[in-house]
């Protein structure tokens, strides 16, 4: 289990926030997660806007901009992890499946990119079996809750 996922699960467990180990629709929690995600994304966008001005900033301002961008990105990751944990969804397994599919965008050492640098899908590329990851989580569950000391 990744450290970020483990830390978020630990937080949720300590504060008695439900986190089932199998996919389980928890509609009563979705409004809260949506609001938190909206708030954190807005803060990340603000930090990114400030970070874009980095070259014109003093060294102290640059340090502050870097710290804010990093902290706001971590807050977004925490909320996303919490959302998925609250619904019993397999974050790690899905990350692995998507990562493997993304690596297949490089064929025989060749990568096709857009003008802005984004890696493009080659001909014949197949996406991750996302539904299969969910089926597997329904059958076997996701990582068990962390035991607290």
From TrEMBL:
Superkingdom assignment: Bacteria
Gene3D superfamilies: putative ntp pyrophosphohydrolase like domain
Database matches in InterPro entries: NTP-PPase_DR2231-like (IPR033653), NTP_PyroPHydrolase-like_dom_sf (IPR023292), PRib-ATP_PPHydrolase-like (IPR021130)
Pfam family, one: PRA-PH
Protein name as it appears in the record: Uncharacterized protein conserved in bacteria
């Amino acid at each position: 289990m990744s450290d970020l996922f483990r830390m978020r699960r630990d937080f949720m467990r300590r504060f008695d926030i439900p986190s089932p180990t199998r996919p389980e629709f928890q509609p009563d929690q979705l409004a809260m997660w949506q609001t938190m995600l909206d708030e954190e994304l807005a803060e990340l966008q603000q930090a990114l806007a400030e970070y874009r001005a980095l070259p014109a900033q003093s060294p102290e301002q640059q340090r502050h901009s870097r710290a804010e961008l990093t902290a706001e990105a971590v807050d977004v990751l925490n909320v996303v992890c919490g959302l998925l944990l609250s619904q019993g969804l397999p974050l790690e397994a899905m990350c692995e499946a998507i990562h493997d599919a993304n690596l297949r965008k490089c064929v025989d050492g060749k990568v096709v990119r857009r003008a802005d640098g984004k890696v493009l899908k080659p001909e014949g590329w197949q996406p991750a079996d996302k539904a299969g990851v969910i089926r597997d989580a329904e059958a076997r569950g996701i990582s068990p809750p962390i035991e607290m000391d």
